[in-house]
Amino acid sequence: MADGGAGAPEARIGGHILADALVAQGVTHAFCVPGESYLDMLDGLYNQRNRIQLVTCRFEAGAVHMAEAYGKLTGEPGVAIVTRGPGACHAAIGVHVAFQDSTPLVLIVGQIPFEETDRESFQEVDYRRMFAPLAKWVTQIDDAARIPELMAHAFDVARSGRPGPVVVAISEEMQRATARVPDIAPAAILPPHPAPEAIERMMALLAAAERPLAVLGGSRWSAEGKAAIRDFLVANDIPVAVGFRRQGLFDGTHPNFVGDLGVGADAGLVAKAKAADLFLAIGTRIGETVSQGYTLFDMAGRGAMKIVHVYPEQAEIGRVYRPALGITADLNAFALAARATGPLERPRWSGWRAELRSLREAQATAPSYEGPLNLATALQSLERALPENTVFTTDAGNFATWPTRFMHVGERQDFLGPTNGAMGYGVPAAIGAKIVQSERPVIAFVGDGGMLMTGQEIATAFHHGAAGPVILVFNNAMYGTIRMHQERTYPGRVSGTGITNPDFARFIESFGGHGEIVERTEDLVPAVQRALASGRPAVVEVRTNPDQVTNRATIAELRAQAERAAAKPVGA
Fold first, then answer.
1. Which of 318, 412, 434, 510 gets the highest tally of CB atoms within 10 A of its CB?
2. All structural domains of the chain with their residue ranges
3. Can you list the alpha helix ranges (DSSP code H) found in 35-78?
4. Residue spans of beta strands (DSSP E) within 186-324
């Protein structure tokens, strides 16, 4: 790459140095929408086409969502490349996902010529100011000789501590400038392990507990780390919940799994979480969704609940809740250390764990919904029919609470979803997952609203020959989550939440894909099986009952509840 003989680096233009820097960091895929602001880097990627698959996308947000899905699946920084101005603005949605989801990601942005700075040149944006609240670090490369140094640091920052996104801007002339500089490989960094007394102190708190509850969250979990934390929690018979859209961290079919603490969490589980006397927060920030709007615990830590907070970034421990014990450690290193500690001899909470599990089983029992399609029953049949190595992706919306409530993600399956609630994530994430791990079946859950935000990325799947994914579009002709809130607050006053949709099956067929429409319970599994067998990107449009706006209430019921609340005397 950069050897000019006798150990001296050869002269390269900055765009080629930049592409070579990605190879040096072990990048295998990069997701882009091309732009004239990084033509020289595109030429460098042409030289590296046998090492890096460049995935050409149709929208910058879609490209970054694909890169973010890569980061979730592999634990290594996903890479997205966009052009300046509008391209970077479109990409900001994906950067926000990576930030709130703690996903390692590196976004490269082409920049205006350096000498035009501060003239409001064509598409000029100050990326340090723009991305400052959305990224772990933002930099601009103004010296071609520093490209390897700054790119290596960008990847180090994205991986370290609490993982997250880094934004690197590089101007056109820096990509054309010539430099003689060696590539820089990743640094050999050992992950931080728990302090010597950390596990012992945690076990002492556990031994004194009567009602412990563990909640798993975070990113960069390895298969070994997930297995180790499972072994530790199961050996001590601790009930296990997962954070918002972190279903892939623990086997949902296991007797110790008790549900998720997120949007739409079971009220019974929330009540039990408040009644717990020891909360093992492992990898979760205990953010707004997990804490149910910051209502689970006393903010100052003065309540009966004791919190053990395990997190790779010390600054996050105690940021919201004051723990009884904070453990700064790599999550996988912590899991291995915890498993190496022998379990307690006689855990006293087997009945407590069984009680929480029974609540989860009751929550997952399919009610009798009106109409020919019982979505709960259909999804549970689908769960039993899918391969054990399936990757699930989800968009944001009310539809997403159905698979969360009624399905269980198995031990070898993955579940990718935006914890920041970004619509438009599910489809590109599924396509990215299929491109990166082509041997695995990929199922996307998306609402009709999110489908037409980034559904054009289906073209990317065809362009790159992806044999899938299968996209389940839940069609109720509305922005369902907002309609739910609207009916609760302003019952019957429908404003701005209705939408008009195409025939989604014909939409995918226009690309040459496989399309089906499902309107009955018994038709979902055969339709998905045919879609998987087709070997092509596929859409299964699931036409749901518009009145059943949530899995717990109809629009009529929400209106009745709102009217009763309005009629209730003030102070009653």
1. 434
2. 11-180, 198-362, 366-562
3. 39-47, 60-74
4. 212-216, 240-243, 257-261, 278-282, 306-311
Rounded Cα–Cα distance for residues 246 and 176 (Å): 43
As a dihedral over the C-alpha atoms of residue 263, residue 269, residue 273, residue 277, rounded to 10 degrees, the angle is -160
CATH 3.40.50.970 fits 366-562, yes or no: yes
Could you tell me the pLDDT band of residue 345, with boundaries at 50, 70 and 90? confident
Cα–Cα dist 372/489, whole Å: 30
Within a 10 A sphere around the Cβ of 197, how many other Cβ atoms? 10
Which residues have a Cβ under 8 Å from the Cβ of 524 and sit 6 or more positions away?
378, 379, 381, 382, 518, 540, 542
Contact of 109 with 91, CB cutoff 8 Å:
yes
Inter-residue contact 53 to 29 (CB < 8 Å)? yes
Whether the pLDDT of residue 4 is over 50: the answer is: no
For 68-78, b/e burial (b = at least 16 CB within 10 A) is bbbbbbbbbbb
Alpha carbon 471 to chain centroid, angstroms: 17
Chain segment 268-311, per-residue pLDDT in tens: 999 999 999 999 999 999 999 999 999 988 776 566 679 999 99
Cα–Cα nearest to 484, from 415, 431, 555: 555
For 522-532, the pLDDT digits (tens) are: 999 999 999 99
Query: Hey, what are 284's tokens?
Result: 């979760």
CA distance 185 to 189: 12
- Note the pLDDT of residue 421: 86
Q: Cα–Cα distance between 73 and 426 in angstroms, integer?
A: 14
Could you please state the CATH topology (level 3) that the domain comprising 11-180 is classified under: Rossmann fold (3.40.50)
Q: Residue 369: which pLDDT band, with cuts at 50, 70 and 90?
A: very high
3-class SS letters over 454-494: HHHHHHHHHHCCCCCCEEEEEECCECHHHHHHHHHHCCCCC
- Confidence (pTM): 0.94
Distance from C-alpha of 49 to C-alpha of 70, rounded to nearest angstrom: 18
Residue 148: both structure tokens together: 């390897």
Alpha-carbon distance of 501 to 511, in angstroms, equals: 17
How far is residue 517's CA from residue 71's CA, in Å, rounded to a whole number? 32
Is-same-fold flag (11-180; 198-362)?
yes
CATH topology of domain 198-362: Rossmann fold (3.40.50)
- Say which residues have a Cβ less than 8 Å from residue 249's Cβ, sequence separation at least 6: 216, 217, 221, 226, 242, 283
